[in-house]
Amino acid sequence: MSGYLLKPADQDAVACIDWTQGYLEPGEFIDGDLGWALLSTGPGDPPKVVVQSFDDANSYAQLREGAAGGVHMLVARAVTNMGRELERSIVVRIAA
User: Fold this and answer.
1) HEC sequence for the chain
2) For residue range 28-64, what is the model confidence (pLDDT) as tens digits?
3) Domain 3-95 sits in CATH 2.60.40.10
């Protein structure tokens, strides 16, 4: 797991995975986004990924909605210029 995001229930939030933090080899960069997934770990509707993007070192997901009090696992996957597939996750808690 890579982190924690507290998302207000009534506002969008952006999650970011920094792949340079222990995942990329020297000379390696993010070459493609393999998508984001939300895994619900409790009651309440999870947020929705409405926009996703990436650059050479980071993956981004804009989250919308979600029931207050919910706790969810947000998983990012990417492929590098060396053909490696990477995966990291963030815990997302929806605040009131």
Assistant:
1) CCEEEEEECCCCEEEEEECCCCCCCCCCCEEEEEEEEEEECCCCCCCEEEEEEECCCEEEEEEECCCCCCEEEEEEEEEECCCCEEEEEEEEEEEC
2) 999 999 999 998 877 778 999 999 999 999 999 999 9
3) yes
